[in-house]
Structure formats: C-alpha cells, structure tokens
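Researcher: Sequence recovery benchmark, item below. Answer with residues only.
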C-alpha cells in the first residue's frame, strides 16, 4: 500500500492482493521505520458501522476507515477508486481517496509492479 500526503489530502493506493486483503480480512497496514525506533504506521480499515470515509491520527498512526458496503462494492468492481472527505475546521475538509494501484506505462527501476492492476489506458489512443 502506498500513502500520498499533500496538504489536506490523503491518497492510498492498493495492489490486487491488498484490495483482496481489505475485502476479506478488513485491514491493510504498512509501516515506515525511522532511526531511533520511531515509525509512522498507516492503516486502512473496513468498518461495518461507518457511514462515510474518515481518517484519524494518533500515536504515530494514520488510520483511514471506509464503510464496509463501499469497500465490498469497490473491491468487486472495475471502479478505480473511492473517495470522501471529512470536516477538519470551519469550511475546511480533509480529502481522502483509496485507489487501485495500476502498473506504470513506462517501467520504473526498482519498482515491483507484479501485483498491481493492469493500467486501463494501455493500448488506448486519444
């Protein structure tokens, strides 16, 4: 799973195996370790009671919760992603996207894309 943070937005990209893991097991988690025994954990959780996507940050962990119904529909479809937002301050919001991770159109050195989804733009022309 990849995490992209930019301003007030979180974007998580999942491989085929991770989408299956979220759908069947309910959680996908990764960790970035830093010197000195500190780490940043990021977790995506299927939530049976949530009515919308939401995110939290506590004790070095970013956790995104997605309603179970939305996960099930997305995981078993050709949809590229699901998104939502939550208020963070008056008139401001945190944007959240969960997407299938596609193979790049050009190979990247040191990038294992063996479990990524096939890129839907391969073979298409403008």
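Model:
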């Amino acid at each position: 799973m990849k995490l992209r943070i930019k301003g007030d937005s979180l974007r998580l990209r999942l491989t085929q195996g991770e989408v299956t893991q979220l759908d069947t097991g309910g959680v996908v988690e990764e960790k970035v370790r830093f010197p000195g025994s500190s780490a940043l954990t990021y977790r995506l959780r299927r939530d049976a009671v949530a009515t919308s996507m939401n995110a939290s940050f506590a004790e070095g962990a970013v956790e995104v919760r997605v309603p179970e119904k939305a996960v099930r529909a997305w995981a078993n479809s050709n949809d590229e992603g699901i998104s939502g937002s939550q208020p963070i301050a008056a008139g401001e919001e945190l944007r959240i996207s969960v997407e299938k991770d596609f193979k790049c159109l050009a190979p990247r050195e040191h990038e294992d894309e063996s479990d990524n989804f096939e890129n839907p733009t391969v073979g298409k022309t403008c």
